[in-house]
Amino acid sequence: MKKARPGIDAQKDVEKAVLYYAGQSLSVSQLFIEEYKAVVALLERMPSMGSFRFAHELDIADLRAYSLHSFPYLVFYIEHNTFIDIVRILHSSRDIYNLPLGLK
Questions:
Q1: Do the domain assignments include residue 101?
Q2: What is the rounded distance in angstroms from the CA atom of residue 77 to the CA atom of residue 63?
Q3: How many Cα atoms occupy the beta-carbon half-sphere of 11 within 13 Å?
Q4: What CATH code is carried by the domain that includes residue 79?
Q5: Distances in Å between the alpha carbon of 50 and those of 13, 14, 43, 79?
Q6: Which residue segment(s) compose the domain that 91 sits in?
Q7: Nearest to 32 by CA among 5, 13, 9, 51
Q8: pLDDT tens-digit profile of 75-85?
Q9: What's the pLDDT at 104?
Q10: Are 98 and 61 in contact (CB under 8 A)?
Q11: pLDDT tens digits, residue range 1-57?
Q12: Those residues with Cβ within 8 angstroms of residue 27's Cβ, 6 or more apart along the chain or in another chain
């Protein structure tokens, strides 16, 4: 099983989302954290679960995306030989095509 490594941008994305949800409800922010961790654990076990849709559209080889189930966020990651690089965690309503993913 490959371990996931969240990059700095991904860590900041999670922090922003948690702060936003904490402003709504601490229990909702906790649910977000739990779901994010569950998705990361799933991707560690089955890294091929994510879609290549954005890789083709953004022309970033090997970029995959996987949705959180209860929150409108996408986890962007790249599977390497020995680990999974979690690149960004972005709200699905964001203009993902014009955001810097830090990969080009």
A1: no
A2: 6
A3: 5
A4: 3.30.2310.20
A5: 19, 19, 8, 10
A6: 3-95
A7: 13
A8: 999 999 999 99
A9: 45
A10: no
A11: 899 999 999 999 999 999 999 999 999 999 999 999 999 999 999 999 999 998 888
A12: none
